[in-house]
Design brief:
The complex is a heterodimer. Chain A is of the alpha+beta class. In chain A, about 20% of the residues lie in helices and about 15% in strands. The chains are: A alpha+beta, B alpha/beta. Bound molecules: iron/sulfur cluster (SF4) (4 copies) and FE2/S2 (inorganic) cluster. One iron/sulfur cluster binds next to α2 of chain A.
Chain lengths: ~150, ~700
């Protein structure tokens, strides 16, 4: 009886031995990610370089991992950060806690936040995995389109 | 069926209500929810928003539930297809000009317009034209921001300022679809009660300037509490973000106390809680400077030094001065610590009335105490009398209660005082006199000889006092405008007045005290005793000035900043220990400073101006090592031969309810049984009701 179990196990081993390996030599070799892969977050801008995020906390409210921290502030009308009255003065995501569910993207009324096909996020310290606006925000476009009125 | 009751059927359910009840209220009583925007139970109906449409059988058209009074046999449908169509239509109309900027609106998440659009609205809009635009936000005044685009013109704010606060500050400018909310001639909206319109506004048009963009309602935890800023004891909810930061105080309606309103001093007075200058550790003076230390080192030093002073000069040379903003539990333990552990009777609170009463006058105090009534008695009074009192300054929400009694129930007001106060304009009779004449005036109103010879000015007040119906007298027993040497006489003549009035009509008195828990400080004997051993002796602070003491404990009290010459007197003491929230002037002179937690960081009770005992709960953690005062006193007392042994604030409550006269037998022994709205102990409405 015991021998039969053993033979069955060995059969799996032997047959797998002959297949080509599934391991990829990351980072030399890159895997093609699925189109809707949910990885590192990005905060976007409008054509005129204003931030899309209005600091509305809806993503934070939707987030089941409670890993988004926001503090909102009032825009200076002469030098606005975002469109409208309010912007996110502080926007932080704890990527270690995030479960990459994408609810934040779904909740956002302005399309400010998306999950990008980037999974290479690591650090030597936990603190480094709390991504703030400096990391998340798209760089400004070199040629901003004038604001619509 | 009684004459004054009518039957009505709402959605198939029968109910019986008093005649004259508004249909919306009748429906609410039996749990039928009719959506509203402009109606509010505390404001008169106007019927401008049309959201509350219902179908009444026998009426050709739909009608508004907020302006219809029920009649006998009325049959009402609130969910018929016609009603639902009307509700969808009204919401579609209300939204045509609405900016729908919910994501950045401070009301979003607790907005009746949002909620009711989800529940009753059409889901789509057919409006494709251009919406009307305004500059936004407009700073209406120091406290309020107005977003005119969001306003649905329900008039609640306008009615609040014209009917409740009666300052007529907010108005509707222009007509029809052009109209908008503003102030007269665009003056700033400055009022003691401006914050109430934030809660009244059914949309995010009126929002708090101070709290703008600091929170979203769904992330706040609510903790029922009591406003700490005056002895009225208005009920509040403390809204906290991340279990850390106090974001706002909101009203928590208690009909017996605040009637649902808060004043701005209370509503916006929370900065001290999370302030960065709060003390986080005990401090001990070393080489002239205060340095952080451990609790055990601080307790050891306090015990050592006080015991040395007691051995040298007797325990009575140790003075204890508490702040009347401490909780009942703190004050009670302070008193027990001083008397039972330290063995000193030198106890007082500060700030307190700056005069004393000797044993011969205790009958007067008893008169006033036995006539103490509850705040809601103002509503049923026929006559309200102010005696050298300004409710608007001392207990602001009292002003609104008085205004409501005067407007709704045809009560009359007599204002007897030195100068005009905001309520004077509502008075039917005004009696003004020079500051040192108060006792002559109060007695003169009743003395036969003076009545005949009295001047014209007396006539009006006298006529009203001679009428019938219940009277409520409000007085300020610190008598700030009366010269110090006349204050005792003022109190005695006040009692004389109450005694005289009582012979003819029902009389209730309400003292307007200064600090939130002053009533308890007096009730628990945390006030200097007079020659007969009861409270109201000479203020201890005065005796500190004359050098009668060797050591002092200041528990939350900070007289050094306000009393001239006290700095030198405190510096001359052998030892000074202070418990404080921050490094006050008094704490700056201390040898040991203990860090106390404030009312939002602990559980406890306070007694309001009419002896209603109410519970506050823990909302945020105390900064650093700060602890409740009762706990520090219990820990400290372990170093004496007679230590105190309370394990929890509830154990202290049980002791209070078992031993303090007037509280005994009336105050429940657990916070749960005191309940969210508090209980009245002796005098707080109980006597009057019996
Ligand atoms: S992906 Fe999910 S878990 Fe991660 S931040 Fe967004 S909502 Fe939170
Ligand atoms: S990312 Fe989107 S949902 Fe989150 S705060 Fe910014 S605007 Fe709101
Ligand atoms: S500001 Fe608010 S309360 Fe005042 S009318 Fe407009 S919607 Fe009503
Ligand atoms: S009246 Fe007194 S208790 Fe009420 S809100 Fe104002 S300060 Fe607070
Ligand atoms: S609530 Fe009845 S018309 Fe506004």
């Amino acid at each position: 009886m015991a021998f039969l179990e053993f033979a069955r196990g060995l059969k799996v081993t032997l047959s797998t031995m002959l297949k080509p390996p599934t391991t990829i030599q990351q980072p030399e070799e890159r895997r093609v990610l699925p189109e809707r892969f949910r990885g590192k977050h990005a905060l976007h801008r409008y054509e005129n370089n204003l931030e899309r995020c209005i600091g509305c906390f809806l993503c934070a409210g939707a987030c089941p991992a409670e890993c988004i921290y926001i503090e909102a502030a009032e825009n200076d009308p002469n030098n606005p950060v975002s469109a409208g009255e309010r912007y996110a003065r502080i926007y932080e995501i704890d990527e270690l806690r995030c479960i990459f569910c994408g609810f934040c993207e779904e909740a956002c009324p302005t399309g400010a936040i998306t999950l990008e096909p980037v999974f290479e996020m690591s650090d030597y310290e936990r603190g480094g995995m709390i991504f703030d606006k400096a990391i998340l925000l798209d760089p400004p476009r070199p040629q901003a389109v004038a604001a619509e009125t | 069926m009684a004459e004054d009751r009518v039957h009505v059927t709402i959605d198939g359910a029968q109910t019986e209500v008093p005649k004259g009840t508004i249909l919306w209220e009748a429906a609410k009583d039996i749990g039928v929810d009719i959506p509203i925007f402009c109606y509010h139970s505390k404001l008169g109906p106007v019927g401008v928003c049309r959201m509350c449409m219902v179908q009444v059988e026998g009426m050709p058209k739909l009608t508004t539930a907020c302006t219809t009074t029920v009649t006998d046999g009325m049959v009402v449908h609130t969910r018929s297809p016609e009603v639902e169509k009307a509700q969808r239509g009204v919401l579609e109309f209300l939204l045509i000009n609405h900016p729908l900027d919910c994501p950045i609106c401070d009301r979003g998440g607790e907005c009746p317009l949002q909620d009711q659009t989800f529940q009753y609205g059409p889901g789509i809009s057919r409006f494709v034209e251009r919406k009307r635009h305004f500059v936004k936000p407009v700073r209406l005044g120091p406290t309020i921001d107005l977003d005119r685009e969001r306003c649905i013109l329900c008039w609640r704010c306008v009615r609040f300022t014209s009917e409740v606060a009666e300052d007529n500050k907010l108005i509707l400018v222009d007509r029809g679809s052009e109209s908008f909310i503003g102030t007269f001639e665009a003056e700033p909206y400055v009022s003691n009660f401006s914050g109430n319109v934030i809660e009244l506004c059914p949309v995010g048009a009126l929002t708090s300037h101070k709290q703008r963009f600091t929170f979203r309602p769904w992330e706040l935890q609510q903790h029922p509490s009591i406003c700490p800023h005056c002895p009225m004891g208005c009920n509040i909810n403390i809204d906290v973000r991340d279990a850390q930061e106090v974001i706002r105080f909101r009203s928590r309606t208690n009909e017996a106390v605040d009637d649902g309103w808060l004043c701005d001093r209370g509503r916006f007075g929370y900065d001290f809680i999370g302030s960065p200058d709060r003390l986080k550790t005990p401090l001990i003076r070393e080489d002239g400077t205060l340095r952080p230390a451990s609790f055990s080192a601080a307790y050891r030093l306090i015990a050592e030094r006080l015991q040395r002073v007691a051995a040298e000069a007797g325990p009575h040379s140790i003075a204890g001065i508490a702040s009347p903003r401490l909780s009942n539990e703190d004050l009670f333990v302070f008193r027990r610590f001083l008397r039972d552990s330290v063995g000193s009777e030198s106890i007082d609170y500060w700030p307190r009335p700056e005069y004393s009463i000797d044993s011969g006058d205790s009958a007067a105090l008893q008169t006033l105490d036995s006539a103490l009534t509850s705040i809601d008695r103002i509503d049923s009074a026929a006559l309200i009398v102010l005696i050298a009192a300004d409710p608007s300054e001392k207990e602001p929400v009292m002003e609104l209660r008085i205004r409501s009694a005067l407007n709704k129930r045809s009560a009359q007001l007599v204002d007897i005082g030195i100068h005009d106060v905001p309520l004077s304009g509502k008075a039917s009779a005004v009696l003004r006199f020079a500051p040192d004449q108060i006792d002559g005036v109060l007695r003169g109103l009743f003395l036969a000889a003076a009545r005949e010879a009295g001047s014209e000015e007396f006539a009006g007040a006298r006529e009203l006092l001679d009428g019938d119906g219940p009277v409520v007298l409000l007085y300020d027993d610190s008598f700030p405008d009366i010269p110090q040497e006349r204050r005792r006489d003022a109190l005695l003549s006040l009692a004389y007045m109450v005694d005289n009035l009582r012979e003819r009509r029902q009389v209730g008195v309400i003292p307007l005290l200064t600090t939130s828990n002053e009533m308890a400080a007096r009730d628990f004997g945390v006030m200097a005793p007079n020659d007969s051993g009861s409270v109201w002796g000479e203020p201890l602070v005065d005796r500190l000035l004359s050098g009668d003491y060797r050591a002092a404990l200041f528990w939350g009290a900070n007289p050094v900043g306000t009393v001239a010459g006290l700095t030198e007197a405190v510096e001359a003491l052998d030892f000074v220990a202070v418990s404080e929230l921050r490094l006050s002037e008094t704490a700056g002179l201390a040898d040991v400073v203990l860090p106390a937690s404030c009312f939002a960081e602990k559980v406890g009770t306070v007694t309001n101006t009419c002896r209603r005992v109410q519970v506050f709960s823990e909302a945020v953690p105390a900064p650093g090592m700060a602890r409740p005062d009762w706990q520090m006193l219990v820990e400290l007392s372990q170093r004496w031969d007679n230590p105190l042994s309370y394990a929890s604030p509830e154990a202290i409550l049980a002791d209070i309810s078992g031993s303090v006269p007037g509280y005994a037998g009336r105050l429940p022994t657990s916070y749960r049984r005191v309940g969210p709205l508090g209980v009245a102990v002796k005098g707080g409405g109980v006597e009057a009701a019996e």
